[in-house]
Every structure is written in C-alpha cells, then in structure tokens.
Design goal:
Layout (H helix, E strand, L loop, with lengths): L9 E3 L13 E4 L6 H10 L4 H4 L4 H10 L5 E4 L1 H16 L3 E5 L8 E5 L2 E6 L11 E5 L2 E2 L5 H13 L4 E6 L4 E8 L14 E9 L2 E5 L17 E4 L5 E7 L2 E8 L2 E6 L3 H18 L4 H62 L48 H9 L3 H4 L2
Antiparallel strand pairs: 1-14, 2-3, 4-9, 5-6, 7-8, 7-9, 10-11, 10-16, 11-12, 12-13, 14-15, 15-16
Helix pairs in contact: 1-3, 4-6, 4-7
Organism: Pelagomonas calceolata
Protein name: PH domain-containing protein
C-alpha cells in the first residue's frame, strides 16, 4: 500500500518571487502614479544622475520620465496588489455621489460610526446612495482625513444653515465573478483531488464577500434574488494575502478565526480580487494607512491643480484686460484722428473767402493794411503826384568832407 501523501504545502508569496509554472503577479505603475522616491529610482535605473534628480519636484520628475518615454515601474507581489488597489481608489474617488439638500432637510440615511468615518448603514430605495458608502465631503469640505467629531460638526452646521447644502459619498467597492473556493473548515488532500474546491459566484458588496452556487438573477447592489451559500465579512481587520500552492496563486483572507481561500482564472484575476478586497477592508474598517496616504496625495494633487487653474485663470484675466486696454487705446487714437480730420474739414469749409487758398476770389486789401506774410498781394503803382522823399545826407567819413561842410556854415547858424 502506498504511503499517504501529505497535504500540499503552501507559502505566502514574497515580493519578486515567481511561483514555478505560474504567471507572476506583476503590475506596471505609470509615472503619474508613482511617488517622488519611486520616480527617482525609476529614472536612476534609466541612467539619470542622482545629483540632477535630487532638487526636482514630483511633477518635474513625472515630466522627465514621460520625456524619456518610460512606461513606469514594475512591481510584484504585495507591491503589485497595493499598486492595483491605488488604481481602484482613483476610480472610486471619481465616482463620488453628491446629494443636494434644501436648508434644514434630512437625507433619510442612517450613518454609523466606523473608526473616524461615517458609513451608510441604511438607505431608502429612492436615493442613489448605497449601504457601505462613506461620507467624504460636506459642502465641498473633505472629511475622510478628519476626526468623526469634526465631521459631525460640519454636518450639523450645514443643516442649520439657511442655504442649501451638499453631502458627497465615496462609493464602496463592488465586484462580482466566478472563483474556486476552498472548503472552509477542512483542507483538501491528495486523496480528495479537487473535491475540496468548489466553483462559486462571488459578490463583493458593502464590505462583505457573499458567494452563491449559481449566478443570481440580479447581482446588482441592493438586491439579492437568491439565497447565498455563505459570506465572509471584511470589517474585522481582515488580512489580504496572495500565496502560492503547487505553483498556483491563491487569495487568502483571514479575519479573527475565520479564513477564506479562493483561486482565480489567472494571476491578473487574483490580483484584482486582492486589490478590491484591500480597498473594501479599508472602507469597512474606517480607513487604513494605504487609503489615508492615497487620500492625502489626492488632495495634494487637487490642491496643486486648483492653484494651477487659479493661476491660469488670473493670467487669462490679465491677458484680457491687456487686450481691452490696447483696444481702448487704439480706439482713442482712431477717435482723436477722426476728430482732427473733422475739425480740419469743418475749418476749411467755414473760413472767410479772403483766407482761402484761391487768390482769384480774394479782393485786394486796403492800402493801410500791410500784406500778410507769404501772400501774393502786390503794392499798386504810384500816382503822378507822389514824389520820392529827398535822400538823407550821408554821414561824413573824412576830414576833407567835414571842412567843406563847415566852410559854408555861418556863425549865426552855430549860435543858440
């Protein structure tokens, strides 16, 4: 008789380890999603000098990486799961649902405190908010990183105000698909073959994994048409790990004394489920370090984007004001030139005939009027009675002329 074979050994998958005979869990993180340290490491591996990168900001490092056409940083193992989880966090942050309320109105939701978060516990059918969603903003003020008491004060102040207010909710992860589940409570063996694994349809919703024998008629949030075979809660500080057994990747979820082990179609499927369970655990437990770090980074990016938009808006306003001033100055110059032209035209038409340039229509001025400078007026011919005045005696210039002049002068002429 053959000796019984021991159950297959399994081990957690460390980083940078490829299970034999199976596709590794790897993921490429784009430059825009890397931290400053990861960007510096990526550029250093590409041949950039560390001294040139030390003083660059994260945005500058991203620009340099894109200019070098670097696809990103390849991570594996736990790093790949966390990188994929950050991608899902980015998707969920863009799916925030904002509800506008009139002054003093209540939303009709039941919020319960989970850590420092206000999580939706009950919701009416008429609202688009789902159970498990998290209150993320009150009147546009982010509150995921705030204490619960501060969030409660924001809600109370918004409700007491006399103006409409808004509440924004962050979507809880939702996912569904087929997985192979290991029987809980007993382990498979070589004798049982695949009898310890069963194919089940899993639905991740509101921080809970629920599985069915067949796909429910409607596996959408808020409606269950068939009875589930079981469930696994992620709201108990659940640990999400990827491990390898006989060259096959498995997703192991551990919470308290409960454990759930599933297998996916390939490494990418296992990685996606692991990342979604990581995000769901963060939502169900009031935030984890991964989610809070991402939220701080997201708010920082949004703040920088808002500052960049504000600078662009101010630059556009200044440019428009400059264009308006230039247009006003040009209009003023055109108007002044038009006024000068109109004044010249009206002045020319209103001049007296004697001041016009046509000399044939100008009567001669009187004799006692001196001719104007530049005019074509000529003095009339002298009359016969007009005689030239006697010439003035010239001044003596020599001694002989003086003796001749005083020789004919008598003493009587010299007496007073």
């Amino acid at each position: 008789m053959d000796r019984p074979t021991m159950p297959p050994a399994h081990r957690d998958l460390p980083d940078d380890v490829t299970p034999p005979g199976h596709e590794p869990v790897k993921y490429v993180v784009g430059p825009g999603d890397l931290t400053r340290g990861e960007l510096r490491r990526l550029l250093a591996d590409a041949g950039a000098k560390a001294a040139e990168l030390s003083n660059l900001s994260r945005d500058d490092l991203v620009s340099v990486a894109k200019a070098r056409k670097l696809e990103g940083l390849e991570v594996s193992g736990t790093g790949a799961v966390e990188a994929r989880a950050r991608d899902f966090l980015a998707v969920f942050s863009r799916l925030d649902r904002t509800v506008a309320l009139p002054p003093g109105a209540e939303l009709g939701l039941v919020l319960e405190r989970v850590g420092d978060w206000a999580v939706v516990a009950e919701t009416p059918q008429t609202t688009a908010v789902r159970v498990g969603d998290v209150l993320s903003e009150v009147d546009g003020v982010p509150c995921l990183l705030e204490a619960y008491d501060d969030t409660f004060k924001l809600c109370a102040a918004a409700r007491r105000s006399r103006v409409p207010y808004t509440l924004t909710f962050r979507r809880a992860p939702f996912h569904k698909g087929w997985l192979r589940k290991k029987s809980r409570g007993r382990s498979a063996s070589r004798f049982s073959g695949l009898t310890g694994w069963k194919r089940r349809f899993f639905v991740l919703r509101s921080g809970k994994l629920t599985y069915y024998e067949a796909e429910p008629p409607s596996a959408s949030p808020g409606r269950n048409a068939s009875k589930p075979k079981g469930s696994f809660s992620l709201a108990r500080q659940c640990t999400v790990r990827i491990r390898e057994t006989d060259g096959v990747l498995e997703l192991a979820l551990t919470a308290a004394n409960d454990r759930l082990i599933v297998r996916g179609a390939d490494a990418g499927d296992v990685r996606n489920w692991a990342a979604l369970c990581t995000v769901a655990t963060a939502h169900a437990t009031g935030g984890t370090a991964l989610l809070r770090d991402y939220e701080r980074e997201r708010l920082g990016v949004e703040r920088r984007e808002a500052e960049r938009r504000e600078r662009r808006r101010r630059a556009n306003l200044e440019r428009r004001e400059m264009f308006k001033r230039q247009a006003s100055e040009r209009a003023s110059l055109v108007a002044a030139q038009a006024r000068r032209d109109a004044l010249h035209s009206s002045t020319s038409s209103e001049l007296l005939p004697e001041y016009k340039s046509d000399s044939r229509a100008i009567p001669p001025p009187p004799l006692d009027t001196p001719p104007s400078r530049g005019s074509s007026y000529r003095l009339p011919e002298c009359s016969p009675a007009y005689a030239e005045p006697p010439p003035r005696p010239t001044r003596a210039t020599s001694a002989e002329e003086l003796r001749e002049r005083f020789r004919n002068v008598g003493l009587s002429d010299l007496s007073p």
